[in-house]
Amino acid sequence: MFNLQQLETLIFCVECGSFSAAARKLGKAQSAISTAIANLEIDTGVEIFDRSTRIPTLTPHGKRLYIQSLNLLSQAKDIETMIHSFSAGVEDTLTIAINEILLTPAFYKVVNEFYQHFPHTELHINTVENQEISVQVSKGKASIGFMLCGDILPKDVELGLVGYLPVTIAAAHNHPLHSQKSIQLQELKSFRQILFTNMHSPWNTHFSSSVTTTNNLNTLQSLLQLDQCWGFTPNHIIQNNTSLKVIDVDSEEKSWLLHIDRVVGKNKNAGQAHAWLYQRSVNMFEM
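Structure for LysR family transcriptional regulator, as requested:
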């Protein structure tokens, strides 16, 4: 039966252009290379090189074998790297529980960095209702969580402030208030408010006499595009949705800020991937 070393020798022969060049590259005698290829042909029962010319060339079967050898060697190296990372204490899987509203461009940037550092760790990103995030972490269903600071202090977990989520008032471009030079906060009461229930804050409550509530971020965006609707909306959502526009309310020159907490379990040994994400999250939601 052929082995990976024989396939590696085949690859060197093809990429170096000749048996002699491959021998020099590998620091072996040419006879050893010729014997390795001959044994590979015997083991596979396939003629890999056409030796009728001065320089052996790949047969059609040899070309197929060469391509598959490249894939197999690449996979073998990936497995070797994966085994090494696992033996070094890198987790096989890591689960993040996060409020959907915190899936910001900055968060995805950190996820991309995570992929580079831990290519063999399977990452699970679960969007969860804000109040359930700490529960999932405490029960071990999630390794780490990111939630908006709430009124009730969660139990059996450790919290850490890692940033702020800027929020402002948004509506569709054709909303009547956009045509006014001056807008008072009280004027919003005359229009239907779209209330996102998974964004906890003292001011994110029933304000208008007409209200629609939703716990889905996509639904929030769609409802805000309807006639005469408005709602408190994260800035990154407004920036990425060309159908929405900020309502500039007098005396409200800056965005409201929601506190973002990192949630981890107490007294639990963390692997390398968890430790990296824990440290990286310190400035993940910087403004």
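The chain has a mean pLDDT of 89.
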